[in-house]
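I hope you will forgive my troubling you with a question about protein structure. The matter concerns a single protein, recorded as an amino acid sequence and a row of backbone structure tokens. Please examine both parts with care and let me know of anything in them that strikes you as inconsistent. Here, with my thanks, is the record as I have it:
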Amino acid sequence: MKNYSSDLKKAIENSSVDWNEFDGSKIFVTGATGMIGRTVVDMLYMAGEMYGIKISIYILVRDLEKASKLYAKKNICGNSENVSMTKDAKSAISITLIKGDVCQKQKYPTTDYIIHAAGYGDPKAFVKNPIGVIRANLEGTMNMLEYAKENNNRILFVSTGEVYGYTGKKEAFVEEEVGRLDFNKMRSCYPESKRAAENVCVCYSEQYNVDVVRCRPCHTYGQTMTERDSRVAAQFIRNAVNGEDIVMKSAGNQKRSMCYVVDTANAIITILQKGEKAKVYNIGNHTSEISIKQIAELLTKEAGTKLVMEYPEEEEKKGYSVSEYQILSDKKLVALGWRPLTKVEDGLKKVVEDLKNKGDI
């Protein structure tokens, strides 16, 4: 995927991250077969190749076959249930696949950093498997925090901008704000459990002195989205790629911060390296604040298709976010030196173009 690869390179070259600081590091990543986690791994891997930095990446996966296919073009040095040693000691960067589940306790290798991005971000899961969503966010996060406590390493927890809930205001959310969530709705399983997991992070920092930092990504889109992703931007992008009309099941007035996945990955690595202990950082994009309807219009224009209105089914409505305004302030992140490189109009075009001409990354 040409745009994706060139954007990764550009982001690495323009990042405020000191890549040399990761030389010799061992980084453990969960959720690396998902959209954001995969891009984080791709960025670390490419930075290692570009600058000759030796980084060992350990990826926790439930499906070894799927992960092996995703990372087939990279230097995978182990893919069994037991952690393997690096086969090529001269390689600047390597990936080790570890079979497991964040919800289950197991022994992990000694590492320097943990990026915990595992979880269910798919609205269909909020309706069909709410308990699984809660378990991944709570049990999974506690297991990773225990791992960080035992190894004395820094952990970054990937939360969500949905934790803000409903505030009634039409200004960008800053990190200190708290809105209302209806815990009588099954849909709240996702933001409520992310909120609880964030508090667990704070408690581990206070009680056990764990070096934890958190981030709250806004709505992220990109070439690495999964086939099962039922979020609205992912559905619209698939429609555009397939030359299909885009079906909207609401007026589309909800306004969102949108961030290209490469910019999100760069933000995560920036926060991992520069974020203040126990603090939380929004990942937004002040250049890309847009309504759902505008996203659909951009994509229909790109694909040469039409925008069609339909009424949603009751099952679908259960997975909808009721928040009309989800704009995240990125000022705190920008203060770390991060800058978004891709506006939403350009990013959507790049994603559609890459997925139409899909190739190896």
In short: The chain has one domain: 2-223+258-287+327-342. Residues 250 and 311 are 7 Å apart (CA to CA).
